[in-house]
Amino acid sequence: MLSRTAESFFWIGRSVERAEYTARFVDVHFHLLTEIGTQEDQANIWTRYLEDTGELETYNEIFGKVQTRPVMEFVTLCRDNPNSLTNLIAAARNNARGIQDQLSSEVWHFMNDFYLSIKGKTELDLWSDIHDLLRYVRNTCYTLDGVVGSTMVHDEGWNFYRLGLNIERGGRTARLIDIPVLSDPTTEPRRISEYHQCLAALKSASAFEAYRKFYSAELVPKRIVEFLLFHDKFPRSVRYTTAQISKIVERLAGSSRRAETRQVIRLSGALAADLEFGSLQEVYYTGLSHFLTQVLEHFDQLSNLIALAFFRTSGYSTTSQSQTQSV
Amino acid sequence: MHHSLRPDPFPETPIHPFRQALNEPRAVDEIAIVSVAYATLNRANFDEIVVLSRGHRSRDRVVKSLFDRYQMKSGFDEMFESEGVPRRHYRRLVERLRNFSSKDLELKRRQADQAFLRQGITFTVYGDLQQTEKIFPFDLMPRIIPDLEWRVIEEGIRQRVMALNMFLVDLYGEQRILHDQVVPRELIDSSVHFQRDLVGFCPPKEVFIHVSGVDLVRNHEGQYYVLEDNLRTPSGVSYVLENRLVMKQLFPNLFADMQVRPVDQYPTQLLENLKWLAPLGKENPTVVLLTPGVFNSAYFEHCFLSLQMGIQMVEGRDLVVESDDKVYMKTTQGLEQVDVIYRRVDDAFLDPEVFRKDSVLGVPGLVRAYRAGNVGLANGIGNGIADDKAVYTFVPKMIDYYLSEKPILQNVPTYLCGNPEDRKYVLEHLGSLVVKAVAESGGYGMLMGPSSTKAEQEEFRKKIETDPRSYIAQPVVTLSHHPCVVNGEEDMRLVGRHVDLRPFVLWGDEISLSLGGLTRVALKEGSLVVNSSQGGGSKDTWVLYGDE
Questions:
Q1: Which of its termini does chain B have fewer beta carbons within 10 Å around, N or C?
Q2: What number does CATH give the domain B413-475?
Q3: End-to-end CA separation in angstroms for chain B
Q4: Which parts of chain A have pLDDT scores under 50?
Q5: Strand, coil or helix: what is B32?
């Protein structure tokens, strides 16, 4: 498969997953915040979110002070924010457009319709029913994943799509857990705002219902962390995504002996093992935030290595050429 | 291309009899009977009401509904000899469609639009500000060419492409035709399309023109003329294939009766020819299609052809020429050698090392690899010189010079503004001529004399006086017209619209033509410009096994 094609598949997966997480996070927090009350609490949560996604500076340049209303516009329809919902869907669709010949027509048409519909949304649409807009984006992302899974051949391209999606998903879940209220295993959420933050973390990963079935509705920080980090069957837990990533990478690498490819396999395997065999005690011993920072660093490294091994072609022409010729 | 002599008899798939009646009206009585029966079965069915109402009309009124309301205009009509009298090769079609009402046409038209949309055969106007997807307008009424006529076209085009290829081989080789002063040297020297760097290089198997699309028009007497040869990267063949597919869906039974020759061997033939270009000794050559990318207006066709041939479509940035002068594509498994490139990128953008330095669409070093014989290219480089509209005037002389034959197909008479006498005539008659820039194509850089303003004429006068070599002029050819289905004030009706014909020519082991080609229609009333970018549409084009 052409490197460019593979990279497009990868970024379609990432962009759509990012849009889905963003829509869900914003929706959940916007509605929970109305219950929390103080302007300051609200500003803190949004600031944290913008820091996490690396958008705080861009935001400040455009809107200045962090306040709920402009933040909502910034993350949904703002054209100057590369990670706004509009721009994420546009990015996914542009990637799809360049590899139309590799997609099923269902995927292409669905993607194009999605793009055209979100592009047509205005601030009026946003404020007339914000929940409706966010739910629409979230649900369309779910559906898109379904269309991809059920109409495309599960070959190399599809694997790159899944790879991008899982890397994004794992990273986003890890960031959700990295909040002060979860960092101390001995506390129980007492203040009403703490309770809501716990709830928001779960809901942002669409994990609340699953958690409730598993542990009952009682919100215990330790259990929340355990669920989102280590659950072996919940598809958005960090452990689940790293296991997926490792499997996909092995499939993609096949029997390749290139050094870059072997490194990708090694790192993704190590990351998956960390989460498969890690324990809560260790996490809290290291410190939750510290542990998560390490995990996120691994995700970043992995992304770079994947690019080197599969997408960047300049660096390996001599070795790969001799291989091609010997085949 | 190999054709069996007879068409495969299209198996009659069992269709609901009433459906069939709808698809293809038979004798009026028969329809009346089945529709009455059908009506008793299901009164609420809309389709049946159409059939029913038609069946009960008197024959005269039914006939008036379609062809009899068609008014012939002055000029050559492809379908009718005289008012109400179809030409011999159209008789059967007219007979079969005689009972079609305006409503039937509307239904078929809707089905056609849906089919094109569904299959994604759209012109995509995807600018960042306004993003729309348009269907390339398709006209339901097919254009028919009888066998005898087609043979002349085929022979004429074969002869022409042969001579043009010999011209290119000569021009980039010994230049005998210049020494013998059959074609003036200054004409070549002054052309931007002549690739001087490639003089002395002969492409593999002495073929430059692997794919061409020769534009033919007919004048008021029905005489065929060649308008352009399109030897660079002609497009449109995807519409030929898709138009046929949709027509077959809409009128399945018509094809069985009409003895229409198939068009669908084109992609297979093209792939075979491309493989033939692979460097010697390559058993299973890797063939790719090089596209300028999604912003190119023919991007749909590039996707379509790669899918049809089952080859990889690549962009310039996917390819790299290594120090061994071989071309590789960058894949997830490393570099993979490419043996043949069907390029849909113009010469100027092909290789920034040789041509335009600012091109990001091309592949640095591609010409190097090509000259080293490590990669096959279709089309060859430098064909543009033979597409130059001033050089075009010498094609009849080339045919005589290289083949010692008389041209079978005529050129449109052309005045070279570079010639003092011609120029004088052109400047005196700007209001009645068509003036064209020699290096342009696709309907750009043209002055349509009769419909131009004084200001436009003055503009062209200045252009011609400053740079006479770059302009030619031709008398206005009143193109033939063909009945087309258009929206009338109240209903769908048939009206005459101007058409041309672009057969596609493939050169591999031998020269072969697409059977028919693309018939383009100027859908605007009175317009003589058929280019798709200027509001043109297309028709399915039928070459018959016989003459009626």
A1: C
A2: 3.30.1490.270
A3: 23
A4: 315-327
A5: helix
